[in-house]
Amino acid sequence: GVRLERLGLDVVAASMSRAPRHAILESLSQQIGETCNFGVMAGSHVVYLDRVESAWPFGLRFERGSHVPLHCTSMGKLFLSTLPAPRRALMLRSIPLYRYTENTITDVGRLEEELEKIRSMEVSTDDQEFLAGVVCVAVPVHGPKRKPIAALAVSAPLARMSLQQGLAHIPLLRSAANSLAATIEQDGSSSEEENT
C-alpha cells in the first residue's frame, strides 16, 4: 500500500515537472506548424523525452521514449558534436553507421567534418539522412555552465518544409531551448532544496 502510494505520488510529480516543458513544445509546434522533439543522448541513441506532433494529417509517428540513431539524426549529430574528440572518435568506431537513405553519411571522415561544423554553429540538420523525404533542424538545450544536456528539434516532411525553411526557424528554436533550459534549472534547484 505504501509503495503504491509512493509510486502514485512520483507519477504525479513527474507529470507536473513535465507539464511546463510540454507546454513549451506545444507553443513552438503551433508557431512553426510542424512536429517538435525534445530528447537526450542515452548510450548510442537519442531518446525522445517528449514530442508534439504537427496538426497535419501526414505526421512522423514516434512515441515518447523512442530511440533513434546518433549518426544520421539532427539531435544525434548535435550530441556527437559536443563530445570531447577522443570520446567522439571512440563512439564513431563503435556505433554501426547504417545507411538509412542515400543521404546518410557513413564515412567517418566526412561525418567528423560535419560534426565540427555543427560544434561551431550549435545547429545541426538532418537532410533526409534518417528518413527519406524528412528534414530536421536541432539546437542544444544548455544546462549549468552552458553544457548541452538535451536537444530541441523541428522535423517535417520535405513536401511541407525545405531544409532552408527549417533553418529559418532557428531563432524560435533557440528561444524555446532557453525556456526549456530554465525549466531544467528550476528542477535542479528545487531538488537541491529538498536535499538540504
Biggest sheet, spatial arrangement of strands: 3-2-1-6-5-4
**Global mean pLDDT:** 84
Largest sheet: 6 strands, antiparallel
Tell me the total number of β-strands: 6
Portion in beta strands: 15-25%
General form: globular
Instruction: Give the uncertain stretches in residue-range form.
Output: 4-16, 188-196
Helix content percent band:
40-55%
Query: How many DSSP helices?
Result: 6
Radius of gyration in whole Å, from Cα? 17 Å
| Helix and strand element order | HEEEHHHEEEHH
Structural class: alpha+beta
Report, as a whole number of angstroms, the end-to-end distance: 28 Å
Describe this structure in words.
The chain contains six helices and six strands; from the N terminus they run αβββαααβββαα. With 196 residues, the protein is an alpha+beta fold. The chain has a six-stranded antiparallel beta sheet, with helices on both faces. Helix 1 runs antiparallel to helix 6 and helix 2 crosses helix 4. The protein is globular and about 40 Å long. The C terminus is likely disordered.
Set out the fold topology:
Elements: H1 2-32, E1 35-42, E2 45-52, E3 67-69, H2 74-82, H3 85-94, H4 108-121, E4 124-127, E5 134-142, E6 148-157, H5 163-167, H6 170-195
Antiparallel strand pairs: 1-2, 1-6, 2-3, 4-5, 5-6
